[in-house]
């Protein structure tokens, strides 16, 4: 079973080291879906994608140097496309703009507010995708507010237009959601949208896990862009950990034992006992002996005597 799973994920392009690590964590009987989910959560990517993202062989570059390989010059990005610890951000421009315009107006101000929020946090790789036809003069059936913002963001290499053209007077639009998910997946980043991309989830199982794990929803509260503090629910990571490549785990807070001094679990009790400084060393029997003043060595001899051969 171990070998067949190893072969299966090797064929998908994942490294043996990552696969073995996940199988050790989840156990040999883990379902393939769970293993895939864990590989994506770890940030492991198929080697075909990695070879696009990383120049090979790796070269040591002096700090502050901007040397880049030709393969990385895509969407105006460079080697330092995101700071070391923050994830790349891919924004669904149409979703954010319509949300800010109360689903009636395509409000470009909403996109600017979202970009500014991530910039202030220190993210350096931010891409916004908007269909090309939004460049056209606004029509009555599709009003646009603050259209000049799109031009400004395009000059800053933040905004990317997805292709669209007219054929015999009809507009042919490429599917911008596919661009958004594809770029976020390949960059191992975060998608900012209130859309769930269900059709794309059904299309590709790896995208399904990625969208479930890396979709950041948001709200606008009086011109303030506000993502939730718990993007994956109350038991998931904090917003700060969600947006970081290297999450910081909180120190475990010991919960006091509800039974207090009446607890009879001894060192097997998983709760905190302030009255037991040497909690880990003493077993229940030793604790009772300590209370009654019987020496530990005598107690252990007695135990051996009473033990059946």
UniProtKB/TrEMBL annotation:
Gene3D superfamilies xref list: 3.40.50.11980
PROSITE patterns for the chain: ZF_C3H1 (PS50103)
Cofactor(s) this protein requires: Mg(2+)
Molecular function per GO: hydrolase activity; mRNA binding; RNA endonuclease activity; zinc ion binding
Pfam families, alphabetized: RNase_Zc3h12a, UBA_6
One GO CC term on file: nucleus
Keywords per UniProt: Endonuclease, Hydrolase, Magnesium, Metal-binding, Nuclease, Zinc, Zinc-finger
C3H1-type domain ranges (all copies): 251-276
Chain positions of all zinc fingers (C3H1-type): 251-276
Highest taxon of the lineage: Eukaryota
UniProt cross-references to CDD domains, sorted A to Z: PIN_Zc3h12-like
Family under the similarity heading: Belongs to the ZC3H12 family.
Protein name stated in the entry: ZC12D ribonuclease
Source organism (scientific name): Stercorarius parasiticus (Parasitic jaeger)
Gene responsible for this protein: Zc3h12d
């Amino acid at each position: 079973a171990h070998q067949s799973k190893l072969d299966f994920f090797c064929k998908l392009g994942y490294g043996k080291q990552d696969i073995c690590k996940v199988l050790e964590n989840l156990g040999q009987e883990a379902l393939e879906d769970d293993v895939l989910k864990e590989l994506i959560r770890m940030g492991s990517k198929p080697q075909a994608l990695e070879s696009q993202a990383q120049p090979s062989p790796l070269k040591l570059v002096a700090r502050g140097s901007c040397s880049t390989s030709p393969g990385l010059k895509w969407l105006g990005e460079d080697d330092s496309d995101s700071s070391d610890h923050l994830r790349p951000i891919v924004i669904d421009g149409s979703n954010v703009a319509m949300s800010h315009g109360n689903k009636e107006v395509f409000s470009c101000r909403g996109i600017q507010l979202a970009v500014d929020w991530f910039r202030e946090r220190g993210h350096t790789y931010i891409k916004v995708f908007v269909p090309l036809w939004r460049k056209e003069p606004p029509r009555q059936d599709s009003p646009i507010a603050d259209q000049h913002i799109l031009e400004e963001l395009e000059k800053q290499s933040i905004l990317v237009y997805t292709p669209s053209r007219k054929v015999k007077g009809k507009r042919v639009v490429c599917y911008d959601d596919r661009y958004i998910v594809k770029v976020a997946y390949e960059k191992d980043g975060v998608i900012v949208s209130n859309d769930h991309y269900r059709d794309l989830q059904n299309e590709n199982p790896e995208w399904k896990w990625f969208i479930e794990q890396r979709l950041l929803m948001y709200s606008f509260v009086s011109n303030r862009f506000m993502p939730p503090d718990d993007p994956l629910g109350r038991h998931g990571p904090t917003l700060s950990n969600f947006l970081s490549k290297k999450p910081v785990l909180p120190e475990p807070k010991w919960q006091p034992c509800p039974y207090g001094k009446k607890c009879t679990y001894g060192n097997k009790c998983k709760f905190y006992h302030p009255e037991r400084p040497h909690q880990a060393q003493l077993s229940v029997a030793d604790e009772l002996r300590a209370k009654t003043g019987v020496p530990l060595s005598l107690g252990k001899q007695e135990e051996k005597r009473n033990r059946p051969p």
